[in-house]
Amino acid sequence: MQCAGEVDLHIENEEDYDKYGIRIRVKFRSSTQLHELTPHHQSGGERSVSTMLYLMALQELNRCPFRVVDEINQGMDPINERRVFEMVVNTACKENTSQYFFITPKLLQNLPYSEKMTVLFVYNGPHMLEPNRWNLKAFQRRRRRITFTQPSQ
């Protein structure tokens, strides 16, 4: 992803355990040095990428039955959003790993999915079809027609 980072135990006062903390330092350009992850130095997308990579790295150390990822792609540019999504899919579809719930109001088109995934869509809001006009089979037929009539790349 052309980024780098490191995590260390940050100690202000060795005798005051309440002041211990984890410090995450990252860089997103090869020409810069590592900087502490803060709201003031990195963009929102860079913080989201850093947070997601950190959480996925922790997965090997901290086992749990499921993980919830809520709107982590908000603020990411499309390139990083696609890369992080692919990493989440690859991580979530490994054997003996946690179940992932990836919650987001938007996804890029043509993202890779795995047969080991179940995708659920929640449709609601003021601009949705009335329930009596909702016809999933008709939507699927329309999608197939569109897919088969588009020229191959």
Compute the number of helices: 3
Describe the sheet with the most strands. Answer: 3 strands, antiparallel
In the CATH scheme, what's the topology name?
Answer: Rossmann fold
- Number of spatially distinct domains: 1
Strand order of the largest sheet: 1-2-3
Ends apart, CA distance between termini: 26 Å
Strand runs, count? 5
Average pLDDT reading: 85
GO molecular function, one term: single-stranded DNA binding
Family: Belongs to the SMC family. SMC5 subfamily.
Keywords: Coiled coil
InterPro entries: P-loop_NTPase
What report would you give on this structure?
The chain has 153 residues and is α+β, with helices and mostly antiparallel strands. The protein has a single domain, classed as Rossmann fold (3-Layer(aba) Sandwich), CATH 3.40.50. It is 29% helix and 17% strand. The strands form 2 sheets. It has a 3-stranded antiparallel β-sheet, with no helix packed on it. A two-stranded parallel sheet has the order 4-5. It is elongated and about 65 Å long. The mean pLDDT is 85.
Quick gist of this model?
This protein is α+β, with helices and mostly antiparallel strands.
Helix and strand layout, with pairings?
Blueprint: E1 4-10, E2 21-27, E3 35-36, H1 44-58, E4 66-70, H2 78-92, E5 99-103, H3 136-149
Parallel strand pairs: 4-5
Antiparallel strand pairs: 1-2, 2-3
Helix pairs in contact: 1-2
